[in-house]
């Protein structure tokens, strides 16, 4: 018994010891749980049995109304809201089946729940262990970080290719930038080649020169300019700046580089550079001088045209005052004109003044100046353009001299020779100091005939020395000018102070008549315009002489012109063709004091000339063949006036016994209009004239021109009147004439009680004829019908085109029977094998024109409906 009890006690003791140790471990575990829960107030630990009742609860409350000790023995669905329990229940079932899961419960507060199976010592799952952690704050923090990260990502996305970012290992962080897409795994030493990075001059960047790699190595990159080629063959210019990104503890987290796109700036810079180059070339190529001065008026810039204009070098002129180059007599006016600019009262002025070249010659300049304003609104300098207007000023002087000389010439009886007054005009207007006139003497040598000296200029000694000189042609400056007939210039000082001389030839009808010598005591540059001026003066002299000779002729012609004006006025009032022609012949007879005037015009055949009007001879209608060798046919054919002194004996004169019985001399004057002869005026004088003076020839030519105008005008008026009343295709009266004739005949029938018939004719199937043969054939049919019908009618009848293919016939003093007979003849005469239909209406004595036409039209339609090619009389 003892032997059996002892082992049993040992076993019990061992079991008790094991139980004690297990209880101790459980207490230690519970203590640790409670200590853990106390250390982490946002964490709770719970143990649920198979029925989901709390076997253990430590840590923060799971619900606002429960303490941990109150939870033991309660089911989980009594503690959690129904929605939360429904979410968690499948997870608990899975944990009881041995799975380990994580679930997050939402709501006002968020919990992360670790669900794990709790196994007994035998390994079977007896409980579900829950570890709950309040992640409300963590979630809020995460959301804040996500928002910040999203914001930064959005910013970087907006920056696009302008930002490059890499981490500490040299991997691109792709924020959507196109240039890193698909290249995030490139090694940093591959960046330069992979992206084709270049120096501004096009040289490739070395592997270590990539701005992002330099920033990753800790370098602060500032304003590194580089080029990145694009797919279209162009390149983008970037300005890169950036540096490393470090943590608080100094660790390198990565690098960032911002790339500013300089392409538009470089393009604009290039355009500006090209524009500046173009402007520079424009300025350099300008004939005008472009300048700048400081506020004191000293040159700071002068274009190359300055040297071409003044002869002074640009470099030697810079820094000097602009007034040094202005003519001394114009400096005061120059300063006065610039005063408003210096005071800030005006921004620009334009003025003219004289300036001196490096050789001492005087030129004229037009200066446009604009002020360059400083910060205080006052001028800080001036810029502008100098334009050499010497040629224009000389042209004005030449025009003034020409005008003054013309006034002088108009006051003398003859302009063949120039005298001292003419020299004074030339010298004064052209701004010379002295002048001489040299003419050819009887000994075939040139001698001085006149002199002039400007007021205040002493040239007495020089002029006295030349007083007795004689020059052969070709000898000296004067003789050479006479021979060459071109201006000759001579420059150089002499004992009398002479500096510039020019000798000019005065010509009349191309031959020299004098030499003018102009003298200047200051340098003068050759002036090509002087020769043109002397040519113009020579022309004026010649014209003046010719004008004097023509004044007598003009006085004689004044009366003729007055009479011609009266003739033109009289003829303008004539619109009738025959009346205008008769008025023309009467006027020609009166103006020329002729005995007879006859107007001949081509007849309708164009083979003969027919008398269409005559004054002083009754010959209207007489003709003469154009093919004969007569003076009248020759004048018409050649367009040239012919004069015969003895009409009676000249064999070329046709019909002399009839038309020229009372004329001994005659002139055949062609009447020409629009470049062709339209007639001949025959003018005969009773007294014999040996010749036809030029004055009479001109007068007859003017009368013939007036005759051409009269003939063309009256013929045109007649054509216009005919056109307004005639159908252009058929030549028949148009609708307007028809309406007038119908109204007139109705009125006459009413007054006298006479009869009147009206018929409307319409060509059958005219549209089909047009479609088959063409519109031109249709027009020919209409014209042929009109031609065929005219002979079938009386002179008192009216045939008119009413419209389209319809014609109207007015038959005065006709009854139905006679009218039908006439219409049947017309229908039988339709050309081209075509037919026509007609409607006839007899006036009832009271109806109006519209009613009569309506009845005829109705009868026409009945004829059409009855089979066409017939006539119907209206009921």
Explain the overall architecture.
Helix content is 41%, strand content 26%. With 875 residues, it is of the alpha+beta class. The protein folds into six domains: 40-134, Beta-Lactamase; 159-267, 2-Layer Sandwich (Beta-Lactamase), CATH 3.30.450; 286-386, Beta-Lactamase, CATH 3.30.450; 393-549, 2-Layer Sandwich (Beta-Lactamase), CATH 3.30.450.40; 573-722, 2-Layer Sandwich (Beta-Lactamase), CATH 3.30.450.40; 726-873, Alpha-Beta Plaits (2-Layer Sandwich). The strands form six sheets. Strands 17-16-15-20-19-18 form a six-stranded antiparallel sheet, sandwiched between helices. A hairpin with a 5-residue loop joins strand 12 and strand 13 (362-373). Helix 16 (528-572) packs across helix 17 and helix 17 runs antiparallel to helix 20.
Please render the helix and strand layout as text:
Blueprint lengths: L1 H38 L3 E6 L5 E6 L8 H4 L4 H4 L2 H15 L4 E5 L5 E9 L5 E10 L1 H24 L3 E5 L23 H4 L16 H6 L4 E9 L5 E12 L5 E10 L1 H23 L3 E6 L4 E4 L2 H6 L3 H4 L13 H12 L5 E9 L5 E12 L5 E10 L1 H21 L9 H10 L4 E7 L5 E8 L6 H7 L3 E2 L4 H9 L3 E4 L8 E9 L2 E10 L7 H45 L4 H16 L3 E7 L5 E8 L7 E3 L5 H8 L3 E3 L11 H4 L5 E9 L2 E10 L8 H32 L9 H18 L3 E8 L2 H8 L1 H15 L8 E6 L2 E7 L3 H13 L7 E7 L6 H17 L5 E3 L2
Parallel strand pairs: 30-31
Antiparallel strand pairs: 1-2, 1-5, 3-4, 4-5, 6-9, 7-8, 8-9, 10-11, 10-14, 12-13, 13-14, 15-16, 15-20, 16-17, 18-19, 19-20, 21-22, 21-26, 22-23, 24-25, 25-26, 27-29, 27-30, 28-29
Helix pairs in contact: 12-13, 12-16, 16-17, 16-20, 17-20, 22-23
């Amino acid at each position: 018994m003892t032997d059996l009890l002892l082992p049993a006690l040992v076993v019990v003791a061992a079991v008790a010891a094991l139980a004690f140790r297990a209880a101790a471990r459980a207490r230690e575990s519970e203590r640790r749980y409670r200590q853990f829960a106390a250390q982490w107030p946002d964490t709770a630990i719970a143990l649920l049995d198979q029925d989901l009742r709390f076997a253990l609860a430590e840590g923060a409350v799971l619900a606002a109304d429960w303490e941990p000790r109150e939870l033991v023995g309660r089911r989980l669905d009594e503690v959690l809201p129904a929605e939360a329990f429904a979410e968690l229940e499948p997870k608990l079932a899975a944990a009881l089946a041995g799975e380990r899961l994580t679930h997050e419960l939402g709501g006002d507060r968020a919990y992360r729940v670790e669900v794990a199976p709790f196994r007994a010592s035998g390994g079977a799952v007896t409980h579900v262990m829950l570890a709950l952690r309040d992640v409300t704050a963590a979630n809020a923090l995460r959301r804040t970080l996500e928002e910040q990260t999203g914001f930064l990502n959005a910013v970087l996305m907006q920056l696009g290719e302008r930002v490059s970012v890499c981490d500490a290992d040299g991997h691109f962080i792709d924020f959507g930038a196109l240039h890193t897409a698909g290249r995030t795994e490139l090694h940093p030493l591959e960046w330069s080649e992979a992206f084709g990075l270049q120096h501004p001059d096009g040289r490739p960047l070395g592997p270590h020169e990539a701005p992002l790699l330099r920033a990753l190595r800790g370098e602060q990159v500032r304003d590194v300019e580089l080029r990145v080629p694009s797919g279209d063959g162009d390149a983008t210019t970037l300005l890169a700046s950036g540096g490393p990104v470090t943590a608080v503890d100094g660790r390198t987290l990565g690098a960032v580089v911002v790339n500013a796109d300089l392409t538009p700036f470089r393009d604009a810079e290039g355009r500006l550079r090209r524009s500046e180059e173009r402007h520079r070339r424009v300025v350099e190529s300008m004939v005008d001088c472009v300048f700048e001065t400081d506020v004191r008026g000293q040159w700071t810039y002068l274009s190359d045209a300055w040297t071409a204009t003044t002869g002074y070098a640009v470099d030697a002129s810079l820094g000097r005052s602009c007034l040094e180059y202005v003519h001394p007599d114009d400096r005061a006016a120059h300063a006065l004109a610039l005063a408003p600019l210096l005071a800030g009262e005006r921004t620009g002025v334009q003025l003219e003044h004289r300036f001196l070249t490096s050789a001492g010659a005087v030129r004229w300049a037009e200066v446009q100046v604009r002020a360059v304003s400083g910060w205080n609104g006052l001028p800080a300098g001036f810029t502008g353009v100098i334009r050499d207007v010497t040629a224009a000023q000389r042209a004005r002087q030449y025009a003034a001299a020409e005008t003054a000389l013309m006034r002088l010439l108009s006051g003398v009886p003859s302009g063949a020779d120039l005298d001292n007054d003419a020299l004074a005009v030339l010298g004064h207007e052209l701004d010379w100091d002295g002048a001489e006139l040299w003419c050819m003497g009887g000994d075939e040598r040139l001698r001085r005939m006149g002199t002039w000296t400007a007021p205040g200029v002493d040239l007495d000694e020089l002029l006295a020395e030349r007083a007795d000189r004689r020059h052969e042609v070709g000898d000296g400056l004067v003789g050479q000018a006479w021979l060459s007939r071109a201006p000759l210039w001579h420059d150089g000082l002499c004992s009398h102070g002479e500096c510039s001389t020019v000798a000019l030839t005065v010509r009349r009808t191309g031959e020299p008549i004098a030499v003018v010598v102009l003298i200047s005591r200051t340098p003068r540059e050759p002036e090509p315009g002087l020769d043109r001026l002397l040519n113009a003066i020579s022309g004026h002299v010649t014209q003046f002489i010719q004008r004097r000779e023509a004044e007598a002729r003009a006085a004689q012609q004044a009366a003729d012109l007055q009479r011609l004006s009266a003739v033109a006025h009289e003829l303008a009032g004539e619109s009738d063709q025959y009346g205008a022609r008769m008025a023309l012949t009467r006027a020609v007879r009166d103006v020329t004091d002729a005995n007879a005037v006859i107007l001949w015009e081509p007849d309708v055949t164009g083979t003969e000339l027919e008398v269409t009007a005559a004054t002083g001879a009754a010959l209207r209608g007489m003709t003469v063949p154009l093919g004969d060798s007569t003076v009248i046919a020759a004048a018409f054919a050649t367009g040239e006036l012919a004069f015969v002194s003895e009409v009676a004996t000249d064999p070329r004169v046709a019909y002399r016994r009839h038309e020229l019985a009372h004329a001994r001399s005659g002139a055949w004057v062609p009447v020409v209009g629009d470049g062709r002869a339209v007639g001949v005026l025959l003018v005969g004088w009773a007294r014999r004239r040996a010749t036809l003076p030029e004055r009479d020839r001109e007068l007859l030519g003017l009368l013939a021109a007036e005759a051409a105008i009269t003939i063309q005008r009256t013929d045109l008026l007649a054509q216009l009147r005919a056109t307004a009343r005639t159908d252009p295709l058929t030549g028949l009266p148009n609708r307007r004439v028809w309406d007038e004739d119908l109204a007139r005949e109705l009125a006459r029938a009413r007054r006298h009680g006479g009869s009147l018939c009206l018929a409307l004719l319409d060509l059958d199937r005219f549209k089909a004829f047009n479609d088959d043969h063409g519109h031109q054939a249709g027009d020919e049919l209409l014209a042929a019908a009109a031609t065929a019908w005219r002979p079938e009618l009386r002179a008192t009848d009216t045939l008119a085109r009413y419209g389209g293919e319809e014609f109207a016939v007015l038959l005065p003093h006709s009854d139905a029977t006679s009218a039908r007979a006439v219409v049947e003849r017309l229908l039988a005469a339709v050309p081209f094998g075509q037919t026509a239909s007609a409607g006839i209406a007899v006036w009832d004595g009271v109806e109006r024109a519209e009613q009569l036409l309506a009845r005829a039209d109705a009868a026409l339609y009945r004829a059409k409906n009855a089979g066409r090619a017939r006539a119907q009389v209206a009921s």
